[in-house]
Each structure stands twice: as C-alpha cells, then as structure tokens.
Design goal:
The chain is α+β, with helices and mostly antiparallel strands. It has twelve helices and five strands. The chain folds into two domains: about 90 residues, 434 Repressor (Amino-terminal Domain), CATH 1.10.260; about 170 residues, Beta-Lactamase, CATH 3.30.450. The N and C termini lie far apart (about 60 Å). This is Helix-turn-helix transcriptional regulator.
C-alpha cells in the first residue's frame, strides 16, 4: 500500500539499497576472494570505497537514520552506483539537493529536435539553449524574425538581438516585459551553469552596454515565463500578436522548444502573407 505522503528519508534509503544490490561485482573487477556473497550486488563497504566516504555513513543512509547528504556526497554516490541520468536526478531530488549541471552544454541542436522544429510548420518554431542561443528555426520563424539572417552565428542569440541589434530594439511592442522575462530566465540559467563562460560573457556585455538590462538585472527576478502573449512589429507585415509556448524536452532539458501561434485573425493573416512570400 502506498502511503499518503512520501517519507523521503525512507525512500532515499530504499533507492540506495536497490541500486547497490543490482550491481554486478564482476563489472568492478573485484578480486575473486571477494566474490562469495550471501546478498546480490556490491557490499556497503565497497560502495563506500568507490564513493570515497565511510562505510558507517552508507549504513546510516540505508537505514534511514535521518541524514541529509551534501550535493558532493550525492554526486559521489551517483558515480559509485553508476546511476543513469534519470536515476541521478532522482537521487538529488530525494536528498533535497540541486544537481551540478553537466559540463557539456548545448551548443548545437539535437538532430531529432531540429527535425521537430521543421515539422511544426506552418507554426513558427525555434530551438534555443539555456542562454537563448538560437540553435534551429523553421522557415516561418526565419521570416518572422528577419534580423537573424544578417547576423553571424555567434550573435544569433534572442537576448543579444533584442538589446543590441539597432533594427530590433523596437521589434517588441511591450519591450520591457519581454526583456524582464528574458533576464529572469538568464539569471536562473546563470545560477545553474556557473561554468558557462559564454553565458557569463553575454551577461557582462549586456550589463556594460544596456542600461535597461542593468536596471532589471539588479532586481534579481528569477520567475521566467514559458507561456504568454507578445506583439511584434514586423518590418513588412506590421503588428503581429502571437501566443508563445516554451517546452523543455525530458532528454535535453537545456534545449528549449518555442512555438508561436497567431493570437487573432489579423495576426494569422499577416503570418499567412509572410509564409507565401
């Protein structure tokens, strides 16, 4: 019977124990004399040695004795137990710790996601990473954001475009709200990816060259908006109001799929005219 509430200490103990017991000692090259075992998997002292922590600490964790391991200990246990990415995330959640972001950051579109962006036509869609670099876009989005084609790849960033491109500064009717929401996302991404020098450099550049960004950054907002409405001033089609939705793939949480839909008949007509040009 499932209890009404989750006892995270007990769940953490059971999760560690089952992950330990499923491991094959032969995969770790343990000496033959250590293979005679009454229980499956690795012994607690072997996990402790692999993780670089004490056996007593492992025992107390598996006995649900109220410990809250640090993020460093959780990372060490995840490595020792050879957890999958999903299992690692679950272990961090049970320990009420925040996982360290992976060292490999998304700098290119995952091929299947890039294909999905193309398949979403005629809806304008694009794929961005955590720092708002635009990694892929379909033809409808390319026509809706015409300034992108004039930029080198390293400047195809939604925040840079909004703040720095002279022809894009008036692109959004409610510019301050768009910038505020973008800054809230960037601050959250900055805290989650402290090793991302490109993100740090983007923020530093915006702080140095845009007073509006500096003012809003100082407010330290972190509640980003993944769904909403915005009105664009398109140089050829006039004002277009869209609903936007931002989706995060489970397999690639640092890649953001953004989809636009016309908010009214006039905006749909404008999108249709752009599509047929």
């Amino acid at each position: 019977m499932i209890p009404a509430t989750v006892d995270v200490t007990t769940e953490l103990a059971g999760f560690l124990r089952t992950r330990r017991e499923r491991l094959d000692p032969q995969d770790f090259g343990l000496p033959a004399r250590r293979q005679a075992r009454r229980t499956p998997g690795l012994r607690r002292e072997e996990v402790a040695e692999l993780a670089g922590i004490s056996t007593d600490y492992i025992v107390r964790l598996e006995q649900a004795r109220g410990l809250r391991p640090s993020a460093q200990v959780v990372e060490a246990l995840a490595g020792a137990l050879r957890l999958t990415p999903d299992e690692r995330a679950h272990l961090f959640a049970l320990a009420r710790q925040r996982p360290r972001s992976a060292d490999k950051l998304a700098t290119a579109a995952e091929p299947l996601l890039a294909q999905l962006v193309a398949d979403l036509s005629p809806l304008p869609a694009m794929l961005m990473n955590h720092r708002y670099d635009i990694l892929a876009r379909n033809s409808e989005m390319a026509k809706l954001l015409p300034h992108l084609d004039t930029l080198p790849p390293q400047q195809r960033n939604a925040m840079w475009l909004c703040l720095m491109h002279p022809r894009a500064r008036d692109f959004y009717v409610d510019r301050e709200r768009v910038v505020r929401e973008g800054i809230a996302h960037l601050r959250t991404a900055w805290a989650a990816h402290p090793q991302d020098q490109a993100l740090t450099g983007l923020i530093a550049q915006c702080l140095a060259h845009d007073q509006e960004f500096a003012r809003l950054w100082a407010e330290r907002d972190v509640k980003a908006s993944g769904r909403g409405r915005k009105t664009l001033r398109h140089p050829d089609a006039g004002e277009i109001t869209v609903h936007f939705e931002t989706l995060t793939p489970l397999q690639d949480p640092d890649q953001l799929l953004v989809i636009y839909r016309a908010a009214d008949d006039e905006s749909q007509s404008a999108l249709d005219r752009l599509h047929t040009r």
